[in-house]
Amino acid sequence: MPFNSAAEDFWDNVSWNSALAPSRAKPKRKGIGWHMKPDELIKKLAELGIAIDRRTLSRYVKWKLVTAPESRSGGKGVYADYPEHAVAEAAAAAELMQRKRWKKEAVAGARMFFAVLQANGINMDSVSEDEIQAAWEKIKPWERIRPETGDDPDKWRKIRPLLAALDTKTWWILVKYYLALLN
Predict the structure, then answer these.
(1) d(CA 103, CA 127)
(2) For every residue of 32-61, which 3-state class applies, written as one string?
(3) How do residues 96-124 score in pLDDT, each as one tens digit?
(4) Which residues 6+ apart lie within 8 Å of 156 measured at CB?
(5) Residue 66: exposed, middle, or buried by beta-carbon count in 10 A (0-12, 13-18, 19+)?
(6) CA distances from 105 to 63, 75, 109 (A)
């Protein structure tokens, strides 16, 4: 049985490894604008006059107040890439919770109601009462955000969606304000 020389073995390995190289390539980042690390996001918030730390940012993500980052693992741990609009969402959440004393459930509810309105093609800048009522019927779990008070539940049936829309409008105005400051 003949053995290959060291040079032949070397060139066989080189050709084999070069054939495998495309399959070993690291995947590129998906999506446009997903390139902000948590420290960069916190730094941009500091430029806007809002001070939060990494733990607060991770809580905002956990509570669904900010768009979750795209996570990827590297050689030294897990990396988080936030979208560019996460700065405005975090700024709005911090503004409402720290300065306006909103509860996290109210901020999350406003963000969720905004997502439902957007999914139904409703523009938050020019929304009608009928569109709010129709969107409200689609998300019954949101009722726990604004608890019923008083003795007449029918009275609150029409007021509750309007209060939710007001909260959502407040959240959306703050997000647009911070987006404008960033651009």
Answers:
(1) 25
(2) CCEEECHHHHHHHHHHCCCCCCHHHHHHHH
(3) 998 888 899 888 888 888 887 777 777 77
(4) 148, 149, 150
(5) buried
(6) 8, 36, 6
Q: Kindly report the pTM of this predicted structure.
A: 0.68
Nearest to 54 by CA among 68, 69, 36, 41: 41
Residue 83: beta bridge partners?
34
Place of tokens 């009275």: 155
Q: Report how far residue 24's alpha carbon sits from residue 96's, in angstroms, rounded to the nearest whole number.
A: 46
Nearest partner of 179 among 65, 90, 114, 99, judged by Cα: 90
Choose between 131 and 143: higher pLDDT.
131
What is the CB neighbour count within 10 angstroms for residue 90? 27
Are β-strands 34-36 and 77-83 bridged in parallel, bridged antiparallel, or unpaired?
Answer: antiparallel
Q: How far is residue 174 from each of residues 63, 64, 88, 89, 135, measured CA to CA in Å?
A: 18, 17, 8, 8, 22
48: its two tokens: 């806007």
Token duo for residue 30: 């998906």
